[in-house]
Amino acid sequence: MKILIASCLLALFTVPIQAQAQTPEQSFDEWIAALRVEAIALGISAATLAALDRIEPVARVLELDNSQPEFIQTFTRYLGLRVTEAQIERGQSLLRQHAALLEEVRERYGVQPHYLAAFWAIESNFGRNTGGFSVLQALATLAYDPRRAEFFRRELLTALQIIDDGHIAADAMSGSWAGAMGQLQFLPSVFYNYGVDGDDDGKIDIWNSLPDIFHSAANFLSESGWRGDERWGREVILPANFDFRLTGAGTRKPLQEWKDLGITQTSGAPIPVADMNASIVLPAGAAGPAFLAYDNYRTTLVYNPSIFYAVTVGHLADRFTGAAAIQRMPENEQAMSVVEVKELQARLNALGFDSGEPDGRVGRRTRSAIRSYQRESALPMDGYASIQLLEAVRPNPVLN
C-alpha cells in the first residue's frame, strides 16, 4: 500500500498548474467532469467516482473561508476556552482508560501519552467535535474557487484515493469546512503520508478507531521530529534587564546560555540545563507569560503553526500530569479588532516601519515593523500588537 500511496501522491503533485483552476466560463458541472477525467487517469475507480454525482458547491464553506473575525482572539481567551478543569479531568480519565493502548503507542513512536491526549483534546474535544461537513463537498467547493484551486484540488483527489482504497465510505468521510478529517483533523494528504492501521483490520480509520487515531497521530509527530525523552517547554521568569530582541522561535540558544542570562523557573530556581537548545516565546507579549520552548514545541508547530496552539497543547499536556496553571497570565488582556490592527499597520507604515498592506492580520512583517518601532521608542521589543501600542502611535498621521 505504501508504494501505491507514494505513486499516487507523486502523480497528484505533478499535475500541471494550468489544469488545476477552472476557467471563468467553466460551470461547476464542467469542472467536476474534468476532475473525473483526471481521477480516472490516476486509477481511481468508477465506483468511487460515483460519489461525485452527488457533489454540489456548499455556500457555507465559502462563507467560512471568506469570513474574518471582528476581533483578534487574545491568548487569555484562546487558552481559557481549551484548558478548563472539566477538560483536564476528562483527559486524565481517558488517559487511565486507554493506558495500555497509549503505552503501546509510546513504545513504538516515542510520543508520551499525555501529549497525545492534549492533541486529541484540542483537535476534536476527544472525538466529540469532528466537523459536520462532507469532506468531498467541502474540498470540491474550495477547489472550484480560484484562490487556492491547486492546493484543494490535490487534496480532493487524495480524498478520492482514500475512499478508493477502502478506508472510509464517501458518505462517512466527514470533517471541517476546510476538509480536515476525523478526530485528528488530518487533511487527506497528511492521512496518506502518516496514517497507520493501528488495529490491523486493513483500514485506516481516524474517525472511529482509537488504535488508528493514536498510532496515526504519534506517527505524524514522530516523523515530524518529536522527541520522546523531552518535554515541550516550561514557563519561566525573565530577568528585569532581559533583551526582548531575543524572543521568538527564530532565536535558539543552549539552555546554559539562557541560564547565564538570568532566566529562572517560576519558583525562582535555576532552569535545568541539558544538551539542548530552546527559544523564548511570548504568546501575550512582554506583559504576559514567558515560555522556554524546546524542540517538541517546534514539532507542535508542524501540526498547527500557531503560537497559541503550540503553547496550549503543551500546557494542557502538563496539566494532565498535575502541573500548575500558568502563573503570569496577563490581567485584563484586551482584544484588538481587525479594524484596529489595520489602523496600527497603516500608522506604522506612515512612520516608516513597513508592515505591508494593512490587512488586519498580525504576521511576520507586521511583527518586524512593531519591533523596529519599539526599538526606536525604547520599548520592550516583543513584536506584540496591542491596544497600548496602537494608542502610542495614534497621534501620528495616517497616510492614505
Polypeptide structure, described:
Among the domains are: 2-67 and 138-168, no CATH class; 233-320, no CATH class; 338-393, no CATH class. The chain has 18 helices and seven strands. The protein has helices at residues 2-12, 28-41, 46-49, 59-66, 75-82, 85-97, 99-109, 113-124, 135-144, 149-164, 188-194, 210-223, 255-260, 295-303, 307-320, 338-350, 364-376, 387-393, and strands at residues 133-134, 174-175, 233-237, 253-254, 264-265, 277-281, 290-293. The chain has a five-stranded antiparallel β-sheet. Strand 6 (277-281) and strand 7 (290-293) form a beta hairpin.
Q: Rg, please?
A: 23 Å
Q: What structural category arises from helix and sheet content? A: mainly alpha
How many beta-strand elements?
A: 7
Helical segment count: 18
Instruction: Describe the oligomeric state of these chains in a short phrase.
Output: single chain
What is the 3D form?
Answer: globular
Question: How much is the average pLDDT?
Answer: 92
The rounded distance between the terminal residues' Cα atoms is 58 Å
Largest sheet: 5 strands, antiparallel
Proportion of helical residues: 40-55%
| N-to-C SSE string, H for helix and E for strand | HHHHHHHHEHHEHHEEHEEEHHHHH
The strands making up the biggest β-sheet line up spatially as 4-6-7-3-5
Low-confidence stretches: 1-20
